[in-house]
Amino acid sequence: MSIMEEVKAKVQAGKTKLVPGLVQEALDGGNKAEDILQVMVDAMGVVGDKFSAGEIFVPEMLIAAKAMAKGVEVLKPHMANDSASSLGTCIMGTVAGDLHDIGKNLVIMMIESAGFKMVDLGVDVPAQKFVDAIKENENVKLVAFSGLLTTTMPALKEAVQAVKASGLTGFKTIIGGAPVTQEYADEIGADGYAPDAGSAAMKAKELVA
Ligand code: B1M
C-alpha cells in the first residue's frame, strides 16, 4: 500500500494517533500538501457513503473526522500562502443546527492564506451572532457561511438575510457546503458561492476586489 493509500485508509478508520505521522511521512516523501489533503477529503467521502449505506454509524463518522482534523494540523504550515497584503476581516461560521466543521476549517485556512484576517465563530451559529460579529470586528469585508445538511439550508438563508437586513454595509457574503449550489446562492441573495475551499479563497478575493 502506498503512503497516500495508507493516509486514506487510516483517516477512514479513524486512526487519530497514526494519521499525523503518516501525513508527515507523505510530506517527507515529496507529496504535495494539496494532494494529501485531497486524499483525506476522498476518505471522508467514502465514510459518508458507508454511513448512507448503513455500514457505519455516527461514532465512526466522528472519529474519522477527528483523524482528518489531526492530519490537517500537520498540513497547515505547508499549504500555499499569499497573504502578503491584508484584504480585510472575514467572519465565518457553520450555520445554526449544523455541527460539521472540517469543511469550514479548510475554507478558513484557504481564505486566510489568501490574505484575510479570519474570525471563526465555530459551529451551530445563530444568524444574530453573525450580525453581532460584524459589529464587533473592524474592517469586515466578507461574511462566510458553511452548511452541510439539507435540513440546515434554511438556516443559511436566514443567516445571509439577517446580515443583509442588519443595515450594516461594506461587506460581501459567500456560502458553501455539500448541498449548496450557485442557484441556491442566487435564490437567497448571497453574493458568492464556491464548491470547495480552494475556489472559496479565489471567490473571496474576487468579491472584495
Ligand atoms: Co454528517 N452528514 N451528520 N457528520 N457527515 C454528512 C454531511 C452526510 C452527507 C453523510 C451521508 O449521509 N452521506 C449527511 C447529510 C445528508 C444531507 O443532509 N444531505 C450527514 C448527516 C445526515 C449527519 C447527521 C444528521 C447524522 C445523524 O445524526 N443521524 C448528523 C447531523 C449533526 C448536525 O450537524 N446537527 C451528522 C453528524 C456528523 C458528525 C458530527 C458525526 C461528523 C462531523 C464532525 C465534524 O465536522 N467535526 C459528520 C461527518 C464527518 C460527515 C461526513 C462523513 C464528512 C463531512 C466532512 O467533513 N467532509 C459527511 C459525508 C460527506 O461529506 N461525504 C456527512 C470533508 C470536508 C472537507 O468536506 O465538509 O463538504 P465538506 O467541505 C467542503 C465543501 O463542502 C466546501 O469546501 C469544503 C472543503 O473543500 N465548503 C464550502 C464547505 N463549507 C463551505 C463554505 C464556502 C465554500 C465552500 O464558502 C463560505
Automatic annotation (TrEMBL):
Limits of the B12-binding N-terminal domain: 1-87
Top-level taxon of the source organism: Bacteria
Keywords linked to the UniProt accession: Cobalt, Metal-binding
Pfam families from the UniProt entry: B12-binding, B12-binding_2
Entry-linked Gene3D superfamilies: Cobalamin-binding domain, Methionine synthase domain
A Gene Ontology BP annotation from the UniProt entry: homocysteine metabolic process
PROSITE patterns hit by this protein: B12_BINDING (PS51332), B12_BINDING_NTER (PS51337)
Residues in B12-binding domain copies: 87-209
GO cellular component entries: cytosol
GO molecular function: cobalamin binding; metal ion binding; methionine synthase activity
Classification via PANTHER family: METHIONINE SYNTHASE
Family: Belongs to the methylamine corrinoid protein family.
Name under which the protein is recorded: Methanogenic corrinoid protein MtbC1
